[in-house]
Amino acid sequence: PGSHNHAEPMTAQLDRDAHHTIWFFVARGNRIASGGRAMAQFASKGHDVFACLAGTLLEETDRARFDKHWSNSVEAWFPEGRNDPNVMMLRFEIDDAEVWTADPGILGTFKLLTGSK
Fold this sequence. Notes:
By secondary structure, the protein is an alpha+beta fold. Helix content is 19%, strand content 35%.
């Protein structure tokens, strides 16, 4: 936020009922831990959906939310466990987004590779 640092991959913690919010676990020393304005990019596994999201990062203080999203895959990044004081959760409140779709079929791939219309 407020810098020209490169993006970094993060695992989004999603909630089916939260349409404008995404959560992330981070170390307190991470460069995005201070929060503020931020952008996120997304590409689906099949490369048929792309998105650019803008919003604000805030520290999530709801312990129930933290515990709800804690998992073995999160703990792999934070081996001291969920009570490690170095672990925090960020809430990304989305206020603007653009989404694009692409044709993942043979014709779409051919167009992509050849630059054809």
